[in-house]
Design goal:
Layout lengths: L8 H4 L11 H6 L4 E8 L5 H15 L2 E4 L19 E6 L6 E5 L8 H7 L5 H7 L2 E4 L5 H18 E8 L3 H4 L2 H24 L8 H10 L6
Antiparallel strand pairs: 1-5, 1-6, 2-3, 3-4
Helix pairs in contact: 4-5
């Protein structure tokens, strides 16, 4: 029998602030290196087996995880329509946004944030956003970024179809650790510079946020 698990607080908090709150911490935390991915569950594979393997892996690393439904109605896989339940699991390395190995009833990958933001949209242009997942790894560090990529490579080859990944660290595409370190360093430089500029150059009362951020970005020197 299928069981629906409500989202825990650390997932619900992801969508609790939809507008800029004016704090440096919030602005900076929205920046950072991320991965973007999509795919479908392979109907020839076992969802329960995938969940068990992911639990075993994340328990080794002592990462948090959250379970959703563990049994598909296989007649629904491949359909355009879907219900509002999630199936699968997500896991949360320290400092990282959730990594979603979760699916809608039609078998397409979808995260809880995607479902909340776009699940009720009647706009066809927004439909693909429902199925494009992102996870920010910037604040989890290089080693966890590598671990996440290795986990997704393994799971996607064994359990998924049509899996697509864009890794801003380019580790998925190249496996190059030196390149990953270089890209992380560049992101850290930009974020630190942006943070310092925000703290030292407050927004003027007659200045729009767009004009303010344009002014701040012009103050960030090129990394040399």
């Amino acid at each position: 029998m299928e069981t629906f698990f409500p989202f825990p607080p650390y997932i619900e908090n992801l969508f609790s602030c939809n507008e800029l709150d004016g704090t440096t911490h919030h602005i900076i935390h929205t920046m950072g290196l991320s991965i973007y991915y999509s795919g479908r569950f392979n109907p020839q594979a076992s969802l329960k087996a995938m969940i068990e393997e992911v639990i075993d892996i994340v328990n080794v690393h002592r990462w948090k995880f959250h379970l959703f439904n563990d049994t598909f109605c296989f007649e629904d896989l491949g359909k355009t329509e879907y219900d509002k339940k999630l199936f699968g699991i997500c896991f949360i390395p320290p400092g990282c946004e959730p990594v979603w190995l979760s699916f809608l009833s039609n078998g397409r990958m979808c995260g809880a944030d995607n479902l909340q933001l776009f699940g009720n949209s009647a706009n066809k242009e927004e439909e693909e956003y429902l199925y494009l997942i992102s996870s920010k790894t910037q604040y989890s560090g290089i080693e966890n970024h590598k671990r996440i990529i290795h986990i997704l490579k393994y799971i996607s080859e064994k359990y998924l179809l049509y899996f697509s990944m864009t890794d801003e660290g380019e580790y998925w595409e190249t496996g190059d650790e030196d390149l990953l370190k270089e890209i992380f360093s560049s992101y850290n430089y930009i974020i630190d510079s942006f943070s310092n500029s925000l703290e030292n150059n407050p927004r003027r009362s007659d200045e729009s946020y767009e004009a303010y951020f344009t002014r701040i970005l012009k103050r960030i020197p090129d990394e040399s």
